[in-house]
Design a protein that fits this description.
- The protein has 123 residues and is mostly beta strands.
- The protein has no helices and eleven strands.
- Strands 2, 4, 5, 6, 9, 10 and 11 form a seven-stranded mixed beta sheet that branches.
- The protein is globular and about 40 Å long.
- The termini are far apart.
- The relative contact order is 0.31.
- The model has no long low-confidence stretch (mean pLDDT 97).
């Protein structure tokens, strides 16, 4: 079975940093584009960042551009999201996901999802 498992979430103050990780199993990791999405209560799940199969291309939603960095380690089947200069608006459950294409950056493009990890940015 395909399993994606996020970790690293928690409570952080505005302006702080947090690093999320996602471990993948049950799939050929290098065959998938990997992405991060987030969902706040009462809101739609939204795209945050994606990274191509070999890590050569990345794409971010404008609101996190310059603050977040997505990376992957294909030798370890892991995906990371380094989040800096965090804002209260970043508070959400963060999900890692896998896609077989690099076309769109919406939830419909991703076939596999992790369970999510809570990130709370608050004073």
């Amino acid at each position: 079975q395909v399993q994606l498992a996020e970790s690293g979430g928690g409570l952080v103050q505005p302006g702080g940093s947090l690093r999320l990780s996602c471990g993948a199993s049950g799939l050929t990791f290098t065959s998938y584009v990997m992405g991060w999405f987030r969902q706040a209560p009462g809101k739609e799940r939204e795209f945050v960042a994606a990274i191509s199969w070999g890590g050569g291309s990345t794409h971010y939603t404008e609101s996190v551009q310059g603050r977040f960095t997505i990376s992957r380690d294909n030798t370890k089947n892991t995906l990371d999201l380094q989040m800096n200069s965090l804002k209260p608006e970043d508070t959400a459950v963060y999900y890692c996901a896998a896609s077989d294409k690099w076309v769109k950056f919406t939830t419909a493009d991703y076939a596999y999802w992790g369970q999510g990890t809570q990130v709370t940015v608050s004073s």
